[in-house]
Amino acid sequence: MVVTISNEYGSGGLAIAKRVADVLGYEYVDQQLPVVVAKRLRIPPEAVDASEDAQRSLGELLLTSLERATPELAQASATEPFDEELFRAVQDAVREYAARGSAVIVGRGASAILGARADVVRVAQASGIRQQLAESEVDRVDRARAAYMRERYGVTFGDAHQYDLCIDTSRQDEVQTAALIVSAVRVRR
Fold this sequence. Notes:
Order of helices and strands: EHEHHHHHEHEHEH
Distance between the termini: 7 Å
Helix content: 55-70%
Radius of gyration: 18 Å
């Protein structure tokens, strides 16, 4: 069984995912994904993180498409664009961790990458603690995540229809939230 955790910024998703992995005895997959991808592409892990966090502007997208449509430039850059190579490497790494089973995979579009497989429990976590955090930072991060999921996977970040379980983490603590997820996983086994 594989659990994917998608979370709004500030929802406590990382700590909850770690607790779920510990209780179930599953591998916790988060920061090792950029390391695996970086090794494959022979780049620093920071470059992977930076690329995932950066949202390309409309202008950048238009320039890239114009460049590819211009024969002189397209021939000069016949190799696959770096962002596409990185995108595929992240997908491959997520699928490999999932193939091993018994894993809790955090973010990076894992729920969209793995799709509606019978051995995957997809969890979305929303937070009601926006007042405690700087609203502009929370909104900025969540907008970037939403844009990434829309651009790369054609899905709406946080759409309840894409998940097996959606939890508002403002209504229970980390232990209670983890217990809900563990219970859902055990029912599915």
